[in-house]
Amino acid sequence: MMEPHRDPAMAAAPGASTRVVVLAGGVGGARLSHGVARLPGVELTVVVNTGDDLELHGLAISPDVDTVLYTLAGVANPETGWGLRDETWSAHGMLARYGAPTWFRLGDRDLATQLVRTRRFRDGATPTDVTGELAQALGVRARILPMSDRPVRTHVRTHGGWLEFQEWFVARGHADDVLEVRFDGVEDARPTERVLTSIAAADAILVAPSNPFVSIGTILALPGMVAALLAAAAPVVAVSPIVAGAALKGPADRMFETLGGESSALGVARHYAGAFPGLVDGLVIDGADRDQAAAIGQLGIRTLVTSAIMRDEDDRVRLAGEVLGFATELRRDEQRRNEG
Ligand code: FO1
After folding, report:
1. 53 CB under 6 A from ligand 1?
2. What share of the chain is helix, strand, coil (3-state, %, to 5)?
3. For a 10 Å CB count at each end of the chain, is N or C smaller?
4. Ligand 1: distance of its center to the CA of 63 in Å?
5. What pairing do the DSSP bridges indicate for beta strands 204-207 and 236-239?
6. How far, in Å, is the centroid of ligand 1 from the Cα of 81?
7. 29: nearest Cα among 128, 146, 149
8. Quick check: CB of 64 below 6 Å from ligand 1?
9. Domains, the chain, ranges and CATH?
């Protein structure tokens, strides 16, 4: 068990940039990525889940990509974490008058993103192309990469049958217990070349405190993804999305119960170690879960105990610096072991 480094800048070697890859879902992934992006000397690539994507009003919507995009651009809605700050809702009001679906709320400014994405797809551009264009237009320096350019659609099985991800998550407020998860299209999808080269070249790979089943799980389900992560020289450090038994955001805690396992930091460690042996080298857990560090260590996963909750921007930068310091430490230990 390690204690955190207090100086966020210490992760970056002087003069050289540290190449960091973050595997991210929506809000939790975006916030950790934002913290990493603000560290000095870091070259950031965010690989984002696209299993939550949907088509609505004839538009191609990629919620997690947009959440990361808006957060890194500093224009995200601070209350919800998704959508844009200072949003207006005129189009939403008109859609309601026309009797069009309004369960998935798209603000006026957000709608513009979806119009541009959809038009570019019609031109033949890929999700990677379009995300790069949107990021550039919003002044984002980090590389935001959709996990794949092929469509993958997450579905969950509930007591009422199979539901599309957003129907369950947004329309039904993720109230239904999830008994099974499936990723339609995943067999034919692949991580993009840019995702694979970023992983191979990384100095640190971080798994964001996103839902292990339907955010990170989707990314890891892509054929070739786990092999690429296992082959990477960089350590893989995950941040627990469960603190004191509860999910930081969303339904991950309830999913641990219904999908098997335990909603705890140890449960997160057991999940990753069981489903993807050898993948996660380190797990960052909250001080509230300090007593679980020894049991996590027995799974072959090192722990960093710190305050794992990101309440404000300062917290994001502090946590990102500590996580990166921990990853650097793990990398050095590995190098020493290989040399000796
Ligand atoms: N989440 C909600 O709970 N309600 C919404 O109406 C909603 C709309 C929405 C629009 C654009 C966008 O990029 C995200 C949006 N989200 C909404 C969030 C999002 O669907 C989920 O948080 C993620 O898919 C889970 O990571």
Report:
1. no
2. 45, 20, 35
3. C
4. 6
5. parallel
6. 9
7. 146
8. yes
9. 8-339 (3.40.50.10680)
Q: What spatial distance separates the first Cα and last Cα of the chain, rounded to whole Å?
A: 22
User: Which of 66, 85, 104, 211 to mutate for ligand 1's pocket (most ligand atoms within 8 Å of CB)?
Assistant: 104
Query: CA 205, CA 21: separation in Å to the nearest integer?
Result: 5
**Helix locations, 84-126, DSSP H:** 90-98, 108-122
Helix, strand or coil for residue 286? strand
How many helices (H) and strands (E) the chain has is answered by: 13, 14
- Residue 10 confidence (pLDDT): 45
Note the pLDDT tens digit of each residue in 79-138. Answer: 999 999 999 999 999 999 999 999 999 999 999 999 999 999 999 999 999 999 999 999
339 residue type, one letter: E
Q: Is 66 in the pocket of ligand 1 (CB under 6 A)?
A: yes
Counting from 1 in the atom list of ligand 1, the atom nearest the Cα of 67 is 13
Looking at the whole model, is its pTM more than 0.90? yes
β-sheet bridge partners, residue 43 = 19
pLDDT (tens digit per residue) in 216-257: 999 999 999 999 999 999 999 999 999 999 999 999 999 999
Mean pLDDT of 67-73: 98
Tell the residue nearest (CA) to atom 4 of ligand 1: 170
Residue 329 CB–ligand 1 contact under 6 Å: no
Distance 84 CA to ligand 1 centre (A): 11
pLDDT tier, 15 (very low <50, low <70, confident <90, very high otherwise):
low
